[in-house]
């Protein structure tokens, strides 16, 4: 039987370098900076400033 | 040199007061854990990316509206949001199944097995946990009958013997338990479907 030489990654290794993309994090930070919450007559509205 | 790490609670407070850098620190601190958690459920980089983004959009909206009560539980709170969004994702996909055939006809796109897969299992577990929490709001006598009937699989005869009431009373308590449970679900505006 042919041998398989692929190394199976452990669960720990599979998730070791998992991080969201830089763009996603940047988008979130920009979204946060652009979001303003305005309160009118007790109701809060979110507005995106560009 | 100051090596003392600022706590999540302090960063959250600073962010709610308008310090945007605090959010950046919170994301950097927890991104790996949250993203890994999402990926471990969906096993798709793009989907994980979307859910991660939606999670933090919810976090940002809640914090900016001042609706968050800091109890030293920032990470569990964010993980809970991510968990709910993962469930939403699987529910949506179940309603609108994706056909990812690449040209050739694939029989597995139109066939499905009736056994629970990992996604439906997560949803089922979530629903069962929610129900377990909800029944705690029932009156003691109804909770007792419902627990014996549903969780211990006892017959109404056995329940009546154990609780010392007539079978009709046990049946009535079960009926009211279900009616009240529906009311509680409506009150909390919950959707408990798989």
UniProtKB/TrEMBL annotation, chain B:
The record, for SUPFAM superfamilies, names: Sigma2 domain of RNA polymerase sigma factors, Sigma3 and sigma4 domains of RNA polymerase sigma factors
Keyword terms, alphabetized: DNA-binding, Sigma factor, Transcription, Transcription regulation
Q: Please give one Pfam family short name.
A: Sigma70_r4_2
Record domain RNA polymerase sigma factor 70 region 4 type: where: 130-169
What does UniProt give as the signal peptide span?
none
Q: Which GO terms describe its molecular function?
A: DNA binding; sigma factor activity
InterPro entries xrefs = RNA_pol_sigma-70-like (IPR039425), RNA_pol_sigma-70_dom (IPR014284), RNA_pol_sigma70_r2 (IPR007627), RNA_pol_sigma70_r4_t2 (IPR013249), RNA_pol_sigma_r2 (IPR013325), RNA_pol_sigma_r3/r4-like (IPR013324), WH-like_DNA-bd_sf (IPR036388)
* Residues annotated as domain RNA polymerase sigma-70 region: 26-95
Gene3D superfamilies per UniProt:
1.10.1740.10, Winged helix-like DNA-binding domain superfamily/Winged helix DNA-binding domain
- A Gene Ontology BP annotation from the UniProt entry: DNA-templated transcription initiation
Q: Which residues form a coiled coil?
A: none
Q: Which family does it belong to?
A: Belongs to the sigma-70 factor family. ECF subfamily.
Record-given protein name: RNA polymerase, sigma subunit, ECF family
């Amino acid at each position: 039987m042919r041998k398989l030489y692929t190394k199976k990654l452990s669960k720990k290794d599979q998730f070791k370098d998992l991080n969201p993309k830089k763009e996603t994090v940047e988008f979130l930070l920009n979204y946060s900076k652009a979001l303003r919450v305005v309160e009118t007559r007790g109701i809060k509205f979110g507005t995106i400033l560009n | 040199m100051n090596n003392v790490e600022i706590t999540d609670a302090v960063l959250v407070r600073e962010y709610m007061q308008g310090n945007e850098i605090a959010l950046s620190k919170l994301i950097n601190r927890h991104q790996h854990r949250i993203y890994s958690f999402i990926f471990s459920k969906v096993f798709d980089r793009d989907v994980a990316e979307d859910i991660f983004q939606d999670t933090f959009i919810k976090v940002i909206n809640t914090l900016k509206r001042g609706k968050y009560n800091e109890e030293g539980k920032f990470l569990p709170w964010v993980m809970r949001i991510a968990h709910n969004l993962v469930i939403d994702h699987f529910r949506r996909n179940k309603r609108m199944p994706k056909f990812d055939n690449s040209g050739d006809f694939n029989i597995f796109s139109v066939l499905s097995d009736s056994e629970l897969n990992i996604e439906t299992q997560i949803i089922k577990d979530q629903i069962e946990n929610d129900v377990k929490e909800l029944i705690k709001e029932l009156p003691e006598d109804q909770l007792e009958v419902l627990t014996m009937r549903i969780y211990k699989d006892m017959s109404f005869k056995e329940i009546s013997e154990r609780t010392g009431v007539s079978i009709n009373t046990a049946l009535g308590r079960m009926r009211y338990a279900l009616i009240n449970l529906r009311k509680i679900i409506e009150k909390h505006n919950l959707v408990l479907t798989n």
